[in-house]
C-alpha cells in the first residue's frame, strides 16, 4: 500500500471512530456535564463533586424520558464483606461500610445503583435498599432484575418481582431488567423465562401502572437472541451490554458477537446502552507491566482503570457505565475519571487497539468473578482459582516449560500464591466435572475443562517434572 493510500485509510478509520463514538470524542466539558429538565420532580442528580476536589460529574440524558443519569453507575454485586460475629467463619455484608460508600457516591454525583435478587448470595438488594432508604427517593435511580434463571414458573417469577420491592424498600423501580438474556438454549429459553409464562405482558402492565419506569434487559450470549429481542414488538427503554476496549471487536469464548455490533444495533433504534464489565472483570485494571507502561507513557498520572472507563463512557448512546466499587479508593478513582469524563481520542483509541492485540496473546481465562457459578456443590472456589491463574499469567508466573529460564521463580510464585489465595479444599483438584456450574456462566467459560487444565498444571509443578 503506498503512502497516499495509507494516509487515506488512516483518515477513514479516524472518521469512523468519531462517528461511532459521537461528537463526545471532541466535546467540551460543558457539553459533557449536560443539564436536566428543571421541571422534572425526579432528577436523580447527586451532589456537587467539586467540594472533594473533583470536577462536575458527567451526566447523560435519557432520550425517552429526560432522566439525568450519572455516567458512573454503582454496580452492587461486590459490596464489602466481613466475618459474622458468631464465629462461624461465614461472611456477611458490611452494612456500615455499604452505607458510607453509598453516602459518598451520592454526595459526589452518582445516582444510578444496579443490583439483583441473586447478587451476593441473595443479600445485595437488602443491603442496597437499607443504604439508599436513608436518602430522598428523588436522589437516586434503582435498577434491579428478574433473575429467574433456575425456576421459570410464573409463581416464582412474580414472587421474585414483589420481593425486590420489599428488599429495596421502594414503591417503584426506575430501571427493571430481564436478567442475563442470551445463554443456555437461546431463543427457547427467552420464551420459557419471560414469554410463555406471561411475565413480559405482566411487566408491561406494571410499567403502565408506574411501578416500573423503564423496562430493559441485560445480554450475555448469542447474537441470534440479541436480534430476536430487538425484533419483538416491545418498546425497550434500555439494554445492558458488555462493552470494553477488548470486547469492542473481539467476540469472547462462547459468543458469536462483539460489542461494536451490539452498540450499533441499539444506536440505530435510539435505545440507550447501560454498560457492564467496562473493566472485563477487573482485568483491565490489572494489566501486565509492559502494557501498563504503554498507557503510563501517554497519561502518567492516570490509573490503568481510568482508560477502560473513559473508553466505555465515550459513545454518546451510553447512559451509564457500571462499576462494582468495593473500596473507597476505587470509588474515588472512578469519580476522578467521570467528573468530568474526558472522551477517548482517536490516537488513544489506536493505542488501546494495540494493547488489546498484545493482551489477547495472553492465555487468560475470561472470568469476570461474577459468582454466578457459585456455590459449587463440591466447595470449589471457582472464581478464586481462575483469579489466581489470571494473576500469574499477567505477572509471567505460569511456567510453560521446566526448561524456562525463570522456571523456579515462577513455579514457587504459582504454588505458594495458590495455597495462600485459595484454601486447599477449595482448589481445582476437587472438581469432578459435574458441569452444574457451566450453564450459569455468562461468559460461556468451559469451567470443568479449565479446572482440569489448571489442575494438570498444578500437579506438574508440584512434581517438578519436565513439560
Keywords:
467 residues, alpha/beta, 8-stranded parallel barrel, two-stranded antiparallel ribbon, 16 helices, 12 strands
Description:
The protein has an eight-stranded parallel barrel with strand order 3-6-7-8-9-10-11-12, surrounded by six helices. About 4% of the residues have low confidence. A hairpin with a 7-residue loop joins β4 and β5. The protein is built from 16 helices and twelve strands. The chain is α/β, with parallel strands linked by helices and 467 residues long. α10 packs antiparallel against α13 and α14 runs antiparallel to α15. It is 41% helix and 12% strand.
Separation, N- and C-terminal Cα atoms:
44 Å
Task: Return Rg in Å.
Answer: 23 Å
Beta-strand residue percentage: 5-15%
Assembly form of the protein:
single chain
At a glance:
The chain is an alpha/beta fold and about 475 residues long. It contains 16 helices and 12 strands. About 40% of the residues lie in helices and about 10% in strands.
Amino acid at each position: 500500500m503506498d503512502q497516499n493510500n495509507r494516509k487515506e485509510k488512516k483518515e477513514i478509520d479516524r472518521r469512523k471512530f468519531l462517528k461511532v463514538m459521537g461528537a463526545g470524542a471532541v466535546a467540551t466539558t460543558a457539553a459533557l456535564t449536560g443539564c436536566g429538565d428543571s421541571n422534572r420532580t425526579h432528577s436523580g442528580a447527586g451532589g456537587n463533586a467539586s467540594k472533594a476536589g473533583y470536577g462536575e460529574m458527567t451526566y447523560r440524558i435519557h432520550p425517552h424520558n429526560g432522566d439525568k443519569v450519572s455516567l458512573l453507575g454503582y454496580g452492587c454485586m461486590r459490596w464489602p464483606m466481613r466475618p459474622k460475629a458468631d464465629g462461624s467463619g461465614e461472611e456477611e455484608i458490611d452494612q456500615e461500610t455499604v452505607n458510607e460508600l453509598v453516602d459518598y457516591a451520592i454526595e459526589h454525583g452518582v445516582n444510578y445503583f444496579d443490583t439483583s435478587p441473586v447478587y451476593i448470595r441473595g443479600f445485595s438488594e437488602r443491603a442496597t435498599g437499607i443504604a439508599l432508604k436513608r436518602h430522598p427517593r428523588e436522589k437516586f435511580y434503582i435498577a434491579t432484575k428478574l433473575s429467574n434463571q433456575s425456576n421459570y414458573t410464573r409463581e416464582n417469577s412474580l414472587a421474585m418481582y414483589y420481593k425486590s420491592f420489599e428488599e429495596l424498600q421502594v414503591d417503584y423501580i426506575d430501571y427493571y431488567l430481564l436478567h442475563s438474556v442470551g445463554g443456555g438454549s437461546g431463543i427457547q429459553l427467552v420464551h420459557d423465562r419471560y414469554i410463555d409464562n406471561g411475565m413480559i405482558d405482566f411487566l408491561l402492565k406494571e410499567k403502565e401502572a408506574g411501578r416500573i419506569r423503564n423496562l430493559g434487559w441485560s445480554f450475555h450470549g448469542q447474537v441470534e437472541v440479541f436480534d430476536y429481542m430487538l425484533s419483538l414488538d416491545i418498546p425497550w427503554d434500555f439494554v445492558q451490554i458488555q462493552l470494553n476496549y477488548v470486547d469492542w471487536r473481539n467476540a469472547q469464548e462462547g459468543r458469536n458477537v462483539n460489542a461494536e455490533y451490539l452498540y450499533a444495533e441499539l444506536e440505530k433504534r435510539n435505545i440507550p446502552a447501560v454498560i457492564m464489565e467496562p473493566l472485563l472483570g477487573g482485568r483491565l485494571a490489572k494489566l501486565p507491566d509492559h502494557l501498563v507502561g504503554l498507557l503510563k507513557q501517554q497519561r502518567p498520572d492516570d490509573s490503568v482503570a481510568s482508560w477502560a472507563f473513559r473508553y466505555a463512557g465515550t459513545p454518546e448512546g451510553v447512559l451509564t457505565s457500571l462499576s462494582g466499587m468495593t473500596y473507597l479508593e476505587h470509588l474515588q478513582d472512578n469519580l476522578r475519571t467521570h467528573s468530568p469524563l474526558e472522551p477517548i481520542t482517536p490516537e488513544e483509541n489506536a493505542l488501546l487497539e494495540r494493547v488489546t492485540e498484545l493482551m489477547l496473546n495472553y492465555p487468560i481465562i475470561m472470568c469476570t468473578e461474577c459468582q454466578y457459578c457459585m456455590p459449587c456443590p463440591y466447595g470449589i472456589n471457582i472464581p478464586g482459582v481462575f483469579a489466581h491463574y489470571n494473576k500469574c499469567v499477567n505477572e509471567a508466573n505460569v511456567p510453560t516449560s521446566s526448561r524456562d529460564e525463570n522456571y523456579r521463580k515462577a513455579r514457587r510464585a504459582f504454588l505458594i500464591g495458590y495455597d495462600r489465595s485459595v484454601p486447599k479444599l477449595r482448589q481445582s483438584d476437587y472438581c469432578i466435572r459435574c458441569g452444574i456450574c457451566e450453564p450459569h456462566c455468562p461468559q460461556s467459560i468451559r469451567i470443568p475443562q479449565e479446572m482440569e487444565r489448571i489442575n494438570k498444571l498444578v500437579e506438574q509443578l508440584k512434581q517438578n517434572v519436565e513439560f
